[in-house]
Amino acid sequence: MKPPRILARAATPRRLIWIIPLFILIVAVVSHGLRERAIAADVLRADPEAILGDPTLREAALAAGHPVYQQHCASCHGATGKGDRTLGVPDLTDDDHLYREGTVAQIEDIARYGIRAGNKHGWNLAVMPAYASKNPDAAEPLPPQTPAQIEVLTQFIHSFTAGVKDHATQQRGRDAYNKAGCWDCHGRDLGGDGAIGAPSLTDDIWLYGGTPADIRRSISRGRAGMSPAFARKLTPAQLRNVAVYVASLAPTQPDRK
Amino acid sequence: MTQQPPSPNPAQPTASSTAIGDAVWDVHKPVGRRSLLLAALGALLGLAIAGYGLFTAQGTRTASVPAEDAALVNNIPVLRADLIAQVTALYSLPYSQTTRPQRQKVLDDMVREELYVQRGVEMGLPNDDIDVRQALVQATEGQIAQDATTAKPAEDELRGWYDAHRAKYATEGLMTLHEWRAPGGVDARRAVTALRNGASPAAAGLLTTGRVDDGEEFYFAAQEHLGKPVFAVALGLADGAISDPIQTPGGIHILQMVRNTRPVATPYAEARDQVLRDFLADKVARLQEGNQRFLKKRADIKIAPDLR
C-alpha cells in the first residue's frame, strides 16, 4: 500500500527539517500535559496529609497552590502568610491554629466552606460576644458586663502573658471569668476550643493583639472574623493545592495528625 | 483574462501541482493551500479542545469518577474532601489511620443520603416539607452571602464606609452617678440647692433610689436602670453637676453626676475588623434585596383578585 501522496511528498530532507521538530514538540507538549494531569489527579486522590511528604505531589501542589494563594488569600493573609491583626487574620506561618490542628484537610475545608461565610458546612458555631453592649450575642441571651467587670477580666487575661503573679488579682479575675461564662467557649483552663475557634487565652499568640487595650476592646466590642467560602469560586484541585500550600507555610509538627 | 489549459490527466500530478505541493512546505512562498491546511488543523485542534471540555466539564455524565470525587450518584458528586472530613470526625482518627471498612461505611452513608436527597427532590419535598423549605431559603440566602464575601473590599471602600458611619464605631459612653429620692416632707428644690452648695445628701434629707449604686456603668445600662426620661436628663449633666428635681411616677428624683464620659470615636485602624464585617453585611443585604427583585421580576406570579 502506498503512503498518501502528501506524506510521500513531505518526506524530503527540506520538509523534514521542520516536520520532525514539530512532531517532537507536539509529542512533548501532549505527554507533558498528560503527566501534569496525572499528577494533579494524584494530588486530589491522595490522603491530604501525605502530600507534603511525597516529593512529586508536594512539588506539583505547591507550584499550583502558590498562584491561587496569591490571587485569593494574600489580600488578607499577606503575601508571606503573616496575617493582619487589625482584621484578626491569623498568621499562617506559626504552629498555632484557631480551628483544629491545621491539617491539610482542615485547611481545605475552611477554604471551601469558610468561617462565618454563610455556608452551613463552614465554621459558624460561635462569636466573641460584645460585652459592652445591651445584647452581647445575637444568638444567645448573655448578660452584659459592667466596665469594672470588663477591667477585671482584661487584667486577668493579660496577666498570663504579662507574667503577673498577684494571687488576689488572679482570684478576682477567675471569679469574674467563671461568672461571665467565658469558660463556656474558652474552657475552664482557658486553653480554648479548636472545635469552635475559641483561642487559648494563656499563650502569647494573639489574633487581635495582646495589649490590655486590645483585650479590653475584644471583650467590649466582640470579635467575629470571617473567612470566605470558595466552594463555588475555586475548583477542587485549586482548593486542595492552596490548602497544601498554606499547610506548608507552618513549621513541621511531628505530632500532627 | 487568460485561462489555464486543463490538465491532460487529473490523476497524474502536473508540474504546477507538484510545485504547489513543494511550496506548501516552503514557508517563504505564499500558497493558499497551506493556509487552508493550517486552518483545517486549527479547526481540528479547536474541536478536540471543545470536545475535551464538553466531556470533562463539571456535571458532565462520565463513565469514570473524577479525581476529586469519592463517588458519583446519578452523576451528582460526593466530594472526596467531604468523605475525609466525615471519616475523621466520626472516628476521631487521622484519615490514614482509618480502615477501609470504616471509610466504606461513611461512604455508604453519604451515598444513601444523596439518594434520599435526590428522591426527596423527585417527590417534591421542597414544596411540601417545611424544614426542607426553610433550609432551602437559608441555603439560597447563604449562597448569596458566600458569593459576596469572596472578594475583599478595597481599602478606600472600607474607609468610606467608616467615614459614613463613624458614630457606630464610637465607644459606649460611661457614667457614674447617684440618684436621690426626696421623701415626703422634703423640699426637693431646697435639697438641690443644698447639694449644689456642697451639703451631703443625708443632710439634705435625700435617700438613694438604689438603681445606679454599682458605680460606673455604660450608657445602655444606665438607661435601662433609670428609664428613658431620667436617663435623658442624666445625659445632659456634666461631671459634678446636680440636676433639677425630676418628677417621676415614683416620686421626685434628683441626679448627681460624678463622671460622664461621652462616647469617643474609635480610630479607623482599631475598628477595621468591625468595619469590614459591617461593610460585608451591608453588601450581602443589598445583594439579597437585588436577588429578590430579580426573582420576582422573572417569575410568573399571579395573585388572586381579592388579595391584590
Instruction: Determine Rg of chain A (CA atoms, Å).
Output: 27 Å
Order of helices and strands of chain A, N to C? HHHHHHHHHH
Percentage of residues in DSSP E strands of chain A: under 5%
| Radius of gyration of chain B (Å) | 40 Å
Mean pLDDT of chain A, as a whole number? Answer: 90
Low-confidence stretches of chain B: 1-8
Separation of termini of chain B?
A: 79 Å
Spatial shape of chain B: elongated
Number of distinct beta strands of chain B: 7
Structural class of chain A, please? Answer: mainly alpha
Oligomer: heterodimer
Largest sheet of chain B: 5 strands, antiparallel
Counted up, domains of chain B total 3
Strand content of chain B: 5-15%
Question: Strand pairing plus helix content of chain B: what structural class?
Answer: alpha+beta
**Overall pLDDT metric of chain B:** 89
Q: Which chain pair shows the most residues in contact? A: A-B, 61 and 54 residues
Q: Spans of chain A of 5+ residues with little confidence (pLDDT < 50)?
A: none
Order of helices and strands of chain B: HHEEHHHHHEHEEHHEEH
Brief characterization of the structure:
The complex is a heterodimer of chains A (257) and B (308). With 257 residues, chain A is mainly alpha-helical.
Folded structure, characterized:
The complex is a heterodimer of chains A (257) and B (308). Chain A has 257 residues and is mainly α. Chain A is 50% helix and 0% strand. Chain A is built from ten helices and no strands. The longest helix of chain A has 33 residues, at 13-45. The model of chain A has no long low-confidence stretch (mean pLDDT 90). Chain B folds into three domains: 38-66; 69-151 and 293-307, no CATH class; 171-261, Roll (Chitinase A, domain 3). Chain B contains eleven helices and seven strands. In chain B, strands 3, 4, 5, 6 and 7 form a five-stranded antiparallel β-sheet that branches. Chain B has a two-stranded antiparallel sheet with strand order 1-2. In chain B, helix 6 packs across helix 11 and helix 9 (219-226) packs across helix 10. The longest helix of chain B has 31 residues, at 268-298. Chain B starts with 14 loop residues before the first helix and ends in a 10-residue tail after the last helix. The model of chain B is unreliable at 1-8 (pLDDT under 50).
